[in-house]
Amino acid sequence: MVSSLAATPPPAAPAPDFEHELEQTVRTLLRLVRGADPAAASGDQARRLVDLFARAERAAASGIALFSPVVVETGSYAKAGHGSAADWLGTVSGSSAAVAKSRLAAAGRAAADPALTGALHAADLSAPQLKLVSETAAVAEGASGTLLDLSGQGASHQELADAAARLRAAARSRQSEHARRARVHQCRHLRSHQRPEGGIGGAFLCDEVAWARIAPRLEAEARRRWKAAGQKEPLDAHRLDAFLELLAGGSGPGGSGGTARPHMVVIVNAEALRRGSVQGGELCEIEGIGPVSVEAASELVGEGGLQFLVRDGIDIRTVTGTTRTLPQRMAAALMVRDRTCAVEGCGKRHGLEVDHCRVDFADGGPTCLDNLARLCPEHHDLKTYGGWRLEGGPGRWRWIAPAHPKSAGYIARARKLAAAKAKATTIRRE
Ligand SMILES: [Zn+2]
Question: Which of 55, 105, 149, 285 lies 20 to 30 Å (CA to CA) from residue 27?
Fold first, then answer.
């Protein structure tokens, strides 16, 4: 038996050897962490070490998800003096009972789904990913396969969450859409209270259509303020300023440095429009908000500043609203094609910037779809100032590192320098 161990797959049930080996591994890990000297590590070495720790974290999360359902089933947690499985896992993992409960639920769902069990054995799912995939699979049949494929291709958590939202939307019947919106309507609220550490905190819940009516104005004003202030503070901070200003009846966009008029964009597949519901990989979503039912999207028709982009495959068939000029039409086509940052595994969808991806604008690169891609501001900076390149094409972009990748500090300095040069040029022209 021992001599053939290397050739046989891992045993289905953990043998005493398994527990012993795991114990040794944990002991080694503890020894390493206790003796770690971060101050002696270079930035590159520290990055590699964190990569390794992150892999260990995923492997550990997978192990917890694989074995905890057995503890639940057998009631063994009571033998350790815990009143519930959630209390037990909360205590051993150092989380709240509520977090432990949702973790146990995800593990239970994974145990009943062969695709998910396989992914856990591959030790490549983090706890939040398992929660997301298993919750989606519970309401959208076959979703685990699609999401695990995406995750295997290196998708970010944001990309997984977006894909999950679409799968859930496609799985909802018209009746359940109605029930969902009715539930949101019933639970709608806006609450605020003074925080003990100072300031007013709050939370709200509202219908997607209601939010779509005001969000574009808020976002446009937030972005205008953020740019005007040199993008130093986070956009979130300026979004609050914009919110307060708009509520106070302020002037809004159009002041100094006013940018494009805010508009709401709904992207929907022609087939979904005809059918009245979304199927498979079709889209019906409000840009910057997320998937909504076709019925909900239709309620926005006739709103000022609304643009309906009707998608057919990956092309746009119809653009409604104010798209008279070619650049606007191209921007619309680009928005439909590049739903998220073009860099694989990024998945950011807010504040995307248009990049001349093959031939730079400064080098006479044409402004045509083939030479354009949407990038998040961070990746745009890496490309513009850090030497990173985007190769391939829509749906198969590859993010290519330069021979000597630069640090974040270098890139920030390069951006500042370029901004200063641009300013100097403007002043000289004046
Ligand atoms: Zn990005």
Answer: 105
